[in-house]
Amino acid sequence: MDQVDLNILEILQKDARTPNVEVARRIGLAPSATLERIRKLERQGILLGYAARIEPVTLGLGLLAFVFVRSRERAGAVRTGKRLAAIPEVQEIHHIAGEDCFLVKVRAANPQALGELLRERFGNIAGVDSTRTTIVLETLKETSSLPVPRSAKGRTARGRV
After folding, report:
1. Which residues in the chain land under pLDDT 70?
2. How far apart are CA 114 and CA 64, in angstroms?
3. Does CATH number 1.20.140.10 belong to domain 3-43?
4. pTM of full prediction above 0.85
5. What is d(CA 26, CA 34) in angstroms, rounded to the nearest whole number?
6. Helices 31-43 and 3-14 sit at what angle, rounded to 10 degrees?
7. Could you state, in order of their start, the residue ranges of all structural domains in the chain?
């Protein structure tokens, strides 16, 4: 991955709807060469996809919470995590180190819906031993954007030196 690829990633991360011709103009390449680079970044699994960001409140999902889940599974097993990941209200799930096994980001309509989600959906998963929930009062920053390095020097396709 070179500096041109990093510039493409930065442009598309800011606005994935930027037309190929505009990306090409900004990086100084022909549109065909730019499109080939974008396709290569997709094939290599560097560009993972494109998605629309939706305001959760407009869908009636104004409550954001993080749930720490403790599992009965042996250390390193993720069967419970996969079952949690299948729940539509679950936005993220992370297998973590520490007392708990998983950190789960969920969206719900209100505290009652969250309680029902925890009782009926999380509670019915055989591997779930206990949960601890933190409700978000206000979100100051939420992004999926990554800091793109300014220089490609010393980097490989996967970002390792």
Report:
1. 76, 152-161
2. 9
3. no
4. no
5. 10
6. 80
7. 3-43, 56-135
Q: pLDDT by residue (tens digit) across 24-70? A: 999 999 999 999 999 999 999 999 999 889 999 999 999 999 999 99
- In the chain, the amino acid numbered 102 is F
Strand order, beta sheet including 102-108: 90-95, 102-108, 63-71, 128-135
98, 119 Cβ separation under 8 angstroms: no
Assign domain 56-135 to a CATH class.
alpha beta
Residue 36 is inside which H or E element, if any? helix 31-43
Of 10, 1, 4, the residue nearest 29 (C-alpha)? 4
How far is 82 from 126, CA to CA, in rounded Å? 12
- Is residue 6 within 8 Å of residue 152, measured between CB atoms? yes
